[in-house]
Design brief:
By secondary structure, the chain is α/β, with parallel strands linked by helices. It has 4 domains: about 190 residues, Rossmann fold (3-Layer(aba) Sandwich); about 180 residues, Rossmann fold; about 110 residues, Arc Repressor Mutant, subunit A (Orthogonal Bundle), CATH 1.10.10.10; about 70 residues, HRDC domain (DNA polymerase, domain 1), CATH 1.10.150.80. Helices cover about 45% and strands about 15% of the residues. It is built from 25 helices and 17 strands. The strands form 4 sheets. It has a 7-stranded parallel β-sheet, with helices on both faces. Strands 8-13-12-9-11-10 form a 6-stranded parallel β-sheet, with helices on both faces. A two-stranded antiparallel ribbon has the order 14-17. β15 and β16 form a beta hairpin. α2 packs parallel to α3. The longest helix has 23 residues. The chain is globular.
Length: about 600
């Protein structure tokens, strides 16, 4: 048995553990349960893979998605670690064969879907084998208050309890509020666990929210800035996925799609096309992504606003998993709120919930939607907003989000605020932002005419303002608590008691308005990377990946190739100093990559 440092270097190619990893490894190795909350890309898998190689028995990794298992097992095999997965993608005879191999000691790590824990064949194998560790990935799925609740996770505790000798248990998640963490502790019945939260920050991610006049035009512009880069575009509905994929394809981009309306074969084919770099862009609903281990995704664009911060941060976090700079851009529009409300009011049937629980769940969904909307309209640091939501302490300026890098000025909008508040009151507090802005700007629409709003004294009171300028002031008034935008079936603007001091001329109102943005949305490669060498290394990596039938990032991640192109190693010792290069990978690929590097050096 090797020690943890030898394993980390030999197999994973790292000389030291990241924040939180070593404490988790040590705790699991000595038999302490662990609840680990670590951001995507922080190296959660190493936390259970290293002790799996140190412990005498088998480690079970419970994971919710087939795609994650395939990618993780492929990556482990590339590093020389014996691993397998058991899920519904295998034929029954393949499952039996895999369990037979496991009994004979051929695997140290087995990935398994939670539903598999209830099958007689798998339980018989587990209860008659030495299972040293059970690692539960995406542990937030056990909580019905989280966005990814899976009833099958509720059976995990019962499965573990049935062992004669209870294995040590590690629960891992990237997104968990205090309430979700409490559910994980209770529902998974963790035994006096070591709780480790390394923080939610992903310093390599750049956050931006854009409210474009035309989402399609903005999307194509953003993609044009990212030619030859891998990315995901998230949409809220299947129909939107089809339309956006068609739009992107017709404009000459390499793109595929993923949603629950496609048959299993096409979903797998499209996912593989993206993971194996046959397609550059994936357009998908939130059905795609949890557990996708493609480390070189350099941007995630949300064409529609997600329903909550948890979902947004998890989906955005699929960018930059290898530590490289990546962009997370959200295209915000009021229609997105109406779509989310429709889904909240028309949920899929869940017979496991009582009527009272259904109502509580709906209230919670509206509360999460309120935070998500605030994120889209805030003028403060976007990273700070997200981290505070998860309970992290953080600076109010990150220097790496659109708001921090936009030059705002505080503008006295007292007179405009009085016009807006008066318009809301005089029209009966029964319209949303768009209608109020149209009335104030003196627009003629059929609905304004039918409802006689042209006769209002505030009609045309802000005729020389653009729609966006009126929207910005309204959003500022909502942020500061002078008005609210209700989250019932329709978003209705209502004045709050705080507004009357403004209407009576007793209080001035200031709103942050943008003067200029000091940065484009595009992250650049670090200046000390030899871009020609990097391209040559990527071509070599692609050839190895095709021969092994694995995704390119399984051979080496983009971050490893970038480190290689900076260091330009030409000996074994130098090559092993590259981040992400272990002994096994050197034996497989080292000489070929060194030959390419020598040509450039």
């Amino acid at each position: 048995m090797s020690n943890k440092y030898e394993i980390l270097k030999r197999y994973f190619g790292h000389s030291s553990f990241r924040n939180g990893q070593e404490e988790i490894v040590d705790s699991l190795f000595v038999g302490r349960d662990v609840l680990a909350v670590m951001p995507t890309g922080a190296g959660k898998s190493i936390c259970y893979q290293v002790p799996a190689l140190m412990l005498s028995g088998i480690t079970l990794v419970i994971s919710p998605l087939i795609s994650l298992m395939k990618d993780q097992v492929a990556a482990l095999k590339q590093m020389g670690i014996p691993a397998a997965y058991i899920n519904s993608s295998l034929e029954p005879y393949q499952v039996t064969k895999a369990l037979e191999y496991a009994r004979n000691g051929r695997y140290k790590i087995i990935y398994v879907a939670p539903e598999r824990l209830q099958t007689w064949e798998f339980k018989r194998f587990c209860y008659n084998s030495e299972i040293s560790l059970v690692a539960i990935d995406e542990a937030h799925c056990v909580s019905q208050w989280g966005p990814d609740f899976r009833p099958s996770y509720l059976k995990i505790a019962e499965f573990i309890e049935a062992f004669d000798t209870r294995p040590v248990v590690g629960a891992f998640t990237a997104t968990a509020t205090a309430e979700v963490k409490k559910d994980i502790l209770e529902l998974l019945q963790l035994n006096e666990p070591v709780e480790i939260t390394t923080g939610f920050d992903r310093p390599n991610l750049y956050f931006s929210v854009v409210e474009p006049a035309d989402k399609d035009v903005m999307l194509l512009s953003l993609l044009d800035e990212r030619k030859d880069r891998s990315g995901i575009v998230y949409c809220s509905t299947r129909r939107a996925v089809e339309e956006v994929c068609s739009l992107i394809n017709s404009n000459g981009f390499s793109v595929t799609r993923y949603h629950a309306g496609l048959d299993d074969f096409e979903r797998r084919q499209n996912q593989d096309d993206f993971v194996y770099d046959r397609k550059q862009i994936m357009v998908a609903t939130n059905a795609f992504g949890m557990g996708i281990d493609k480390s070189d995704v350099s941007f995630v664009i949300h064409y529609n606003m997600p329903s909550d911060i948890e979902s947004y941060y998890q989906e955005a976090g699929r960018a930059g998993r290898d530590g490289s700079d990546a962009d997370c851009i959200l295209l915000y529009g009021p229609k997105d709120i109406r779509t989310i409300k429709y889904f909240i009011e028309n949920p899929s049937e869940n017979e496991e919930l009582t009527e009272t629980e259904k109502e509580e769940l709906k209230e919670r969904q509206y509360e999460r939607l309120r935070y998500m909307t605030q994120y889209c309209t805030t003028r403060d640091c976007l990273r700070s907003f997200i981290l505070k939501y998860f309970g992290d302490e953080c600076s109010s300026y990150c220097g790496k989000c659109a708001n921090c890098l936009t030059n705002f000025e505080s503008v006295d909008v007292t007179v405009d605020a009085q016009k807006i508040m008066s318009c809301v009151i005089k029209t009966g507090q029964r319209y949303g932002k768009r209608m109020i802005a149209d009335v104030l700007r003196g627009k003629y629409t059929k609905r304004i005419s039918e409802e006689g709003l042209e006769a209002q004294s505030t009609y045309g009171a802000m005729a020389d303002y653009t729609k966006q300028e009126v929207y910005d002031i309204i959003d500022g008034l909502v942020r500061q608590g002078y008005m609210e935008s209700t989250l019932d079936q329709y978003s209705i603007l209502k004045v709050l008691p705080k507004s009357y001091s403004v209407l009576h001329g007793e209080e001035a109102v200031f709103v942050k308005m943008a003067k200029e943005q000091k940065r484009s949305h595009t992250n650049k490669n670090l200046p000390d990377v030899d871009s020609k060498l990097l391209s040559a290394l990527k071509l070599l990596r692609k050839s190895f990946a095709q021969k092994a039938s694995v995704p390119a990032f399984v051979v080496f991640s983009d971050a490893t190739l970038m480190d290689m192109s900076r260091r330009k190693p030409t000996t074994k010792d130098e090559f092993l100093e590259v981040s992400g290069v272990g002994e096994v990978k050197y034996k497989r690929y080292g000489e070929a990559f060194i030959e390419v590097i020598k040509k450039f050096k």
